[in-house]
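Q: What does the assembled structure look like for these inputs?
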Amino acid sequence: MDPLEKSITRKAFFKEVLGWIRQGVAEAQAEGLSPRAESVLLPPGARDCRSFLSACSRCHACVTACPHFALRVCQDEASPLFGYPMIDPRQQACYLCHDFPCIQACASGALGHWKTRFKLGTAEFDASTCLDEQQGFCQTCLNHCPHMGRAVYRDVRGRLTIAPEHCTGCGICVMVCVQDPPAIAIRAPAVPQPVPEDRQTDPSFPKPEKREA
Amino acid sequence: MPLKRREFLKASAAAAAAASIGVNLIPGMDNKLFADAVSWEKSVCRFCGTGCGVMIGKKGDKVVAIKGDLKNPINKGHICVKGFFLHKVIYAKTRLLYPMIKRNGKFERVSWDEALDYVARRFNEIRKTDGPDALAFYGSGQAETEETYMANKLFKGCIGTNNMEGNPRLCMASAVGGYLSSLGLDEPAGTYQDIEHAELFLLVGSNTAECHPIIFERIVRHKTKNPTVKILIIDPRKTPTDQVADIHLFPKPGWDLAVLHAMAHVIIKEGYADLDFIKNHVNFKSNDGKDITFEAYQQFLEDYTPEKAEAISGVPAGDIIKAARMFGQAKTAMSMWTMGINQRTRGVWANNLIHNLHLLTGKIGVPGSDPFSLTGQPNACGGVREGGGLCHLLPGHRKVTNPKHREEVAKVWGVPVGNIQPKPGKHTIAMFEALNEGKIKGIYIMCTNPAQSLPYAQKFWKGLKEQFVVLAESFYPTATSDFADVLLPAAFWAEKEGVYGCTERRSQYMPQVLQPMGEARWDAWILRDLAMRMGFKKEFEKYRTAEDIWNEYISLTKGRDMDLSGATYARLKKERGLVWPVPSETHPGTYKRYTQGDPFFDELPEEKKKGRRMYFYGKPDGKAVVWARPAKPPAEPTDKDFPYALTTGRVLEHWHTGTMTRAVLELARAVPRAYVEIHPQDARKLGIANRDTVVVETRRGKLEIEARVIDRPEPGTLFIPWHWKEWLANLLTIDAFDPGSKEPEYKVAAARIYKA
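A:
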């Protein structure tokens, strides 16, 4: 029998429809809360999240070395990066110093001169909150981008666009955005989302150690 | 009551729907969703001279939002990031709320009566002992036309001194000089409508994307629709405006006059000149004002071949030729320029050279063609240039030196004609120098911040410290309030009504939607009450509303080239501004001056118009002037000791001295502190890394500041935005000024830079 022709009870119908709504609300709530957490970046020189987490000794030498106070210790207990050094670009973006004092300070090998060390992620616009998309004229992100005109530019239609091949993910655009929460975020694919312990499928994934209060 | 499930669902769905459209089904339920909806009222943006229409969103007695006015022909609903946060400026924590008098070095709160009596008494004392010329007024291109008009009447008409200036002297004076000497009358011939018809934009010394964002957006939108539109930029610095540039010429700061001459040279040599237009509409004049022939002018240009211009300015000759051909080949072209041209010791000349390009090619007076100067302040055109807020002007583009003009104005003001001095007063730099020397003993400063905005600012602090300074301001503290003896709280935007006149000759009305905060009062009423206490009761007691002042002002403009007599409050309240000349209440405003459609052109007798499409009625024979101005270097060229050329400017997020924008957290976080931009090549040579603290030094002062190593300025050029009083760029700038327009050269100073 075709499943579409199967008659459903009213109860089942409401259960399903209300279930969709509940799910939508939960997702929307999660979205409202998450941008900052999603924008957290690994320090420059980290290859990917897994190797960084396994190699980092949490000596925080890089945090001490950072001249711009961009590197800080992750205080978010829910994050897999809890206790590890990270960059929150909204607080202070990375300036990608030419001599990388953070990498030089790293003794554990978690930060090294990998091929992709300049790329912390890629910026992405949220068209629903970006002022420029809503009858406004704002190009604060473009004005402050160290690669103005290459990484962020106005395309042929005059809209702000990001070129992923030029964007370093330094996060200066996130830091300066006049909207709150920022209408631009750095997508760092290397940072995995926290996964509940009972659904932990990858045994090699290091569990964050809870610090004693 | 047992409720069936079906009924419950029905009821709850109905209640939800009702709540969302604002009906209360359930008694006692307080539906707040639409209870106090936001009401919108049209107004004009408080920031730059573009004159964007904004809608003020008011909820209860609070302004909660600003949005672009969709019906406004200037911005069509678009608005830049500064305007977006304008409502937060009103509620800034730095608002000045009470009158204060400085006693023993400390400000003490006093009543309005006490403050005004004190000021009136001191001013009258000074006037009695040292004569009226010991008093001065320093106004602003941000003050409303009505406010400037009141100050004008008080100082020029009643007190009897022409020491009445405004900060447009620091930003627009050279453009005025350029328009007067080239076209005969002040202010552009075209309007913003030309943008949508232009085939080429020549942006000289203008960072349009950051300083006039909405004009830039209109240009971008136009280019998007018409990809053949060309944009040509002449600027020593790569700016966000470069996004859309087709070609960018980078002259050394202050040496671009040769580039403009070389472009004229190529245009004539390669046959792009409109000989018909030149024959009927153009006179040629040498620098000393003597008439010369077209051939003599060509002979003069032989000194400025592209190769010679390359040697002077550093712009490759090939680029100059390419740019000139682009300008010549385009059917219509629009030039726009701002401070890069105006704030120079040869600002008037640079303005003339831009007009030359348009006059030689006949690219003027037709849709899409205009030499169009952009204004930096919202009412520099309306209040100060038209309202006569400078030391040599009277309302309605009149001059103090003209006896007929003095008579006309004195009659309307109701003062004896002898009160208005026939000699121009002191211009801004001379005025503050006189303050230093003690020749001026009392100054009234309104709505501006000279302690930060004057070039070589620290030189003028002495006079501000020693003499009697009255400051009418909406914000406290500012750099100038440190030097004030009396602080008078002024009502801010949206707390007062009045008229702003923007770059394109459009006058727009702003309503009052709020009660002034604290004890703040409208500047015009402060001036009125001060005047009455100083003994000018008869002259000032007749003003009861803003409309009284406006009506008197527009009666003075009747018959003048900037005729606003048809722009009554009733009309301005309804319409989105009117572009003068508006000679009658039924006149729709004028799109193009000096040509068909301009009421003054249409009135001319036929024999004058014969064979002509334009008549420059500000000149005796109706012909515009192409000037053969030599290319002079800046006042302080770079040398061995000071090898870098320092230039100053704005950023998108901040405005002028930052008293407004720095109070908005969102904008302050975007650009929290000043920096000096330096090219990576220079930085490597000096061992400067990004974000190092460096010292920038000129012959006048030094400044410790953060370095930003970025390839925006050319090698050999430094750039500092000037919005911060903590990192005061004007400690470094030079106070040399244009001998014609008296506008100082902010844009070029020789500097050196080293690691702190």
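The interface with chain A takes residues 67-68, 77-81, 84-85, 209-210, 213-214, 216-217, 220-221, 223-224, 227, 240, 242-244, 651-653, 666-667, 669-671, 689-691, 710, 712 of chain B (CB under 8 Å).
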